[in-house]
Specification:
The chain is an all-alpha fold. The protein is built from 3 helices and no strands.
């Protein structure tokens, strides 16, 4: 998949956020009533949303590195924002129950 424009990035992020919100809603609806010893279905449903965000982060990073914005300042700002988003995403993947 080769992303060519900012419009495609916006569509990518809109889709990823819709998947994330849908899985967040679905995972809360599937929460078990009592304590469990293994991950429940709600965990795996929520994981799908986090994977969607992760894919959007990677594809956006690749777009910035290949074609991205022309301005060096804008490119640097987007890379910093993606790096911060990547750290937050990693924390959510490692510590999903916090």
């Amino acid at each position: 998949m080769r992303i060519q424009s900012g419009r495609q990035i916006a569509a990518l992020w809109a889709g990823a956020l819709l998947v994330f919100l849908a899985t967040a809603w679905g995972s809360t609806a599937l929460l078990p009533a009592g304590p469990v010893t293994s991950p429940s279905t709600s965990y795996y449903v929520g994981l799908v949303g986090l994977v969607a965000i992760g894919i959007a982060l990677v594809l956006t990073w690749l777009w910035i590195r290949r074609t991205g914005p022309v301005s060096r300042g804008t490119r640097a700002l987007l890379q910093v924002l993606l790096a911060i988003g990547g750290v937050l995403w990693l924390a959510a993947m490692v510590f999903p129950f916090v």
